[in-house]
């Protein structure tokens, strides 16, 4: 065979290979664009839908009535998200379920999940080692899937004149080492710390572990059943202080959120600056400082999780579907609207 014929055959083979690769690439692009190929994250239980999808386009949504429960921090997200899920995929019916005894919260939600009272649960903290152990004893595998970022905000009476607190000062207040606002640059005024009970939810447990560093609450801490009641007390008490999920604090009209910092010269507000005076509320409300929550500059942030049972049954399908709803663009926009920070 002549060199000229060999060159022609080589050219033909190269062209054929190029065309084939182009066709394969085009088919792959079309499939990906139309949702036939799903992106899989490092979380094998979560089938993350492609960016730009809406609730109506989430695949593999099971049919049935699914009970779920858990964290009270999640309430603003549930209010925004759940009605639109029901509209987009009416076969997927959701029912928030309170515990039969005790207060609703992360801990009770995980307990109910292990007792087969829930299909999936919502959590404002990571699963504890003892909860993993309990699940293992029941032959249940749990997986936590993050869907949003939250911060813990500190609220005081609007008339209290103080620039902010460091984490060390906050710890000192709740462990009883600091009992007067004068000790942290404020007026001569006794501090009245408020908190929900430790067993009431993930926020309190997170605060105890990460702010108090597992020291006990001081004897002067007044325990209040709900955030609503605590904020009502705070509005009446000039010396009061309370902590809760940032969306429950920042937009309020009757209490003032405080800047926090790791050091006194690094105070970061949980709200967007400039601060909107409370006299303008509710016409104008302060908004979450999302940028500093995402960057970690704000010193007390955490992730919110959906807790899913890895049992290959409808409960797992329901939990994964709920995660997928929240991870769509529509879901992330609603998380922002609820006052939380997106993870994407």
Descriptive account of the structure:
With 344 residues, the chain is α/β, with parallel strands linked by helices. The chain folds into two domains: 40-149 and 305-342, 3-Layer(aba) Sandwich (D-Maltodextrin-Binding Protein, domain 2), CATH 3.40.190.10; 150-301, 3-Layer(aba) Sandwich (D-Maltodextrin-Binding Protein, domain 2), CATH 3.40.190.10. Helix content is 36%, strand content 19%. Helix 2 packs antiparallel against helix 11 and helix 10 packs across helix 11 (329-337). The radius of gyration is 25 Å and the shape is globular. The relative contact order is 0.18. The model is unreliable at 1-46 (pLDDT under 50). InterPro entries: PBP_domain (IPR024370), Phosphate_ABC_transporter (IPR050811). It comes from Plectonema radiosum NIES-515. The chain crosses the membrane at residues 12-32.
Topology:
Blueprint (H helix, E strand, L loop, with lengths): L2 H31 L5 E2 L6 E2 L15 E7 L4 H14 L3 E5 L9 H9 L5 E4 L5 H9 L4 E15 L8 E2 H8 L17 E4 L6 H9 L11 E2 L3 H10 L3 E6 H4 L6 E3 L1 E2 L28 H6 L5 E9 L4 H14 L1 H9 L3 E2 L2
Parallel strand pairs: 3-4, 3-5, 7-12, 8-9, 8-10
Antiparallel strand pairs: 1-2, 5-13, 6-10, 6-11, 6-13, 6-14
Helix pairs in contact: 2-11, 10-11
């Amino acid at each position: 065979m002549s060199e000229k014929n060999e060159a022609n055959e080589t050219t033909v083979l190269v062209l054929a290979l190029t065309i084939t690769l182009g066709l394969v690439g085009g088919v792959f692009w079309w499939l990906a664009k139309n949702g036939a190929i799903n992106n899989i994250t490092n979380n094998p239980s979560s089938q993350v839908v492609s960016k730009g999808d809406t609730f109506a386009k989430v695949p593999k949504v099971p049919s049935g009535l699914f009970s779920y429960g858990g964290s009270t921090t999640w309430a603003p997200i549930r209010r925004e998200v759940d009605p639109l899920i029901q509209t987009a995929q009416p076969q997927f019916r959701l029912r928030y379920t309170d515990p039969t005894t005790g207060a609703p919260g992360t801990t009770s939600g995980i307990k109910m999940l292990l007792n087969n009272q829930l299909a999936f649960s919502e959590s404002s903290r990571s699963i504890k080692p003892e909860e993993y152990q309990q699940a293992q004893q029941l032959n249940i595998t749990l997986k936590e899937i993050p869907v949003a970022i939250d911060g813990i905000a500190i609220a005081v009476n609007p008339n209290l004149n103080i620039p902010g607190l460091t984490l060390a000062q906050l710890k000192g207040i709740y462990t009883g080492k600091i009992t007067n606002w004068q000790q942290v640059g404020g007026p001569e005024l006794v501090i009245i710390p408020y908190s929900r009970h430790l067993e009431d939810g993930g926020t309190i447990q997170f605060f105890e572990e990460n702010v108090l560093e597992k020291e006990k609450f001081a004897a002067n801490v007044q325990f209040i059943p709900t955030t609503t009641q605590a904020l009502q007390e705070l509005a009446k008490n000039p010396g009061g202080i309370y902590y809760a999920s940032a969306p429950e604090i920042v937009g309020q009209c009757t209490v003032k959120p405080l800047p926090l910092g790791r050091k006194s010269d690094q105070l970061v507000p949980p709200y967007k600056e400039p601060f909107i005076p409370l006299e303008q509320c509710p016409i104008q409300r302060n908004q979450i400082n999302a940028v500093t929550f995402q960057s970690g500059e704000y010193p007390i942030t955490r992730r919110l999780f959906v807790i899913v049972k890895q049992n290959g049954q409808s409960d797992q399908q329901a939990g994964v579907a709920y995660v997928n709803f929240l991870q769509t663009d529509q879901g992330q926009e609603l998380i922002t609207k609820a006052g939380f920070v997106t993870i994407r």
